[in-house]
Amino acid sequence: MTPSAGGTAPDARDIVIGPLDLATWVDEALAVQAQAFGLSPEEVAVRRHIVLRHVASPGARALGATDGNGRLVGFVYGMPNDRAQWWSTVVEPYLRRAGNESWLDDSFTITELHVLPAYQHRGIGRRLITTLTDGAAEPRSILSAIDTESPARALYRKLGYRDLARRVLFPSAPSPYAVMGATLPLRR
User: Each residue of 158-184: pLDDT tens digit?
Assistant: First the structure.
């Protein structure tokens, strides 16, 4: 995929899911995340550096969802989990207390999954995450999501994810998170 400018919102059937060069598309992806997750410009600037560091990690992969005009309307990326990375070091004590620390090994981590609000509830997020995890060599997947009942958590549960730890506190995050895990392939 190559970046292109705006356009009108086509039917969800016109959405194409494919490999995404996230280093090239980082600004478009973060614009999607900012709208979907309500990020400030300052938060976007911080996340830009994080995303670029992540995509350089061994095994990192990304997919994008583009409309008929080539505009990015959703994306997902992840990588084989590495216990030395920041996310793992934060969630490890919570997983250990819950008896689920082993999930940090031999797992593919979904780092981010976001779809523009106008395109949500159309199956795009499901297509993105299942397509990405179908290509994972690891036997299971882990992710974190805000620890509240939400459409995202409902989707993850339908796909086979279950809570591994709850009330996980990330530094500077205003809300607690849940760490969820699923065996692969994900349920359809």
Answer: 999 999 999 999 998 899 999 999 999
The residue assigned the tokens 């730890």 is 165
Neighbouring CB atoms inside 10 A of 65's CB total 28
Q: Among residues 80, 51, 62, 96, which one has the least CA distance to residue 140?
A: 80
Indicate if the alpha-carbon torsion angle 129, 130, 134, 135 is positive or negative.
Answer: negative
Burial of 59 (0-12, 13-18, 19+ CB in 10 A): middle
Rounded Cα–Cα distance for residues 188 and 180 (Å): 17
- Please tell me the pTM assigned to this model: 0.92
131 within 8 A of 17, measured Cβ to Cβ:
yes
Those residues whose C-beta lies under 8 Å from the C-beta of residue 156, and which sit 6 or more positions away, are 143, 145, 180, 182
- Tens digit of pLDDT for each residue in 5-49? 444 545 667 999 999 999 999 999 999 999 999 999 999 999 999
